[in-house]
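Two quick folds needed for the group meeting slides. Do the first one here.
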Amino acid sequence: MQTTLPSSKSEVKETLLTPRFYTTDFQEMADLDISTNIHEFEAILEEFKADYNRQHFIRDEEFNQSWDNLDRDTRNLFIEFLERSCTAEFSGFLLYKELSRRLEITSPIVAECFLLMSRDEARHAGFLNKAMGDFNLALDLGFLTKSRKYTFFAPKFIFYATYLSEKIGYWRYITIYRHLEKHPEHRIYPIFRFFENWCQDENRHGDFFAALLKSQPQFLNTLKSRLWCRFFLLSVFATMYLNDFQRTDFYNAIGLDARQYDIQVIRKTNESAARIFPIALDVDNPHFFQLLDECAQQNNNLINLDKQNISGIARNIQKTPIYVGLTFNLLKLYFLRPVSSQDIEAVVK
């Protein structure tokens, strides 16, 4: 990631927990048959065309002020939040734009849906980048496009991961929005006022990927697919949990407890996923969040070791048992018995 300051550039280290850029097998995507629920795609396309947020992302007078009143730590954490969010939105824009181009002939309805989703993601990324401008910063998106490494994901993995990222994005945004609506004294910057409509874009994108998954029953109804659903649910939840554990001060600044916030978001996303996935994670198992807490602490220990002024060999020796413990805890989380989606739906109702 490149952060452009008035006269210099600095690099941010890429890790497994940073937002990634993806590519996929475009021919396999083009060959997918969506005829089983074509009417659902047509309805979703009409929703995208309505463009409910066309006039939403317009900066108003509240942005036109100095933000030097933010203390240094809060300012740095908020800038990091903007950077990560902008990078994630821009990653979505690039993937959706390329998919719309590759599928234009073979699957025009799906291609147009991807095109309109790329419109939304570009709008989000641009709005976030303008916000960074209030802090005399901006992401060099052109440099980011050329220099960032791309991770290959098969189409079904794109569907699982992106469906969950859009749905968890919805619950993250709406939870923050509803909290700040009740406690406006914690709204440290006006961008949070835009989250209610913003998260509806995330929700509609998630519905599109849900339709793609439903059109391919082999991605949902086999033993292998059930294992992959568990894997991606855990991956998305653990990534958020470990990231937010490092940023508790940011959540404190907007009046939230990071752990309770993550627990609520995970529960809501798990319920949403149960409407599509055949299984959900047993987040009510008393070991579930206990193990996530241990993973977050182990990840934090790894980060602290990187900050210490010790040799690479000594650092790696100290890291090894932590990596082993972290891996073991993630495996224990994965092998916690899942629950049937039907059971989740019955409880929610």
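Then this one, please, same format:
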Amino acid sequence: MSQFDALRANEPELAELRASVRDFLDRDRAEYGWEPDVDSWLGQWDEGFSARLAEAGFLGMTIPTEYGG
């Protein structure tokens, strides 16, 4: 086992999550016309995009449920 095996996250559930996030981003980009950019979140804020992420269930995923995640 290499030191990176734990980082690979090849479980089917995670593959499904990655696919759903990619699908959301593809649809949102097509509808709202934004272009991905490296570190774009540092220079601008899109409240609507954040609201759409929340509606899709993608905010707070790394926060334990007892703290609202």
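Slide caption for protein two: The two ends are 32 Å apart (CA to CA).
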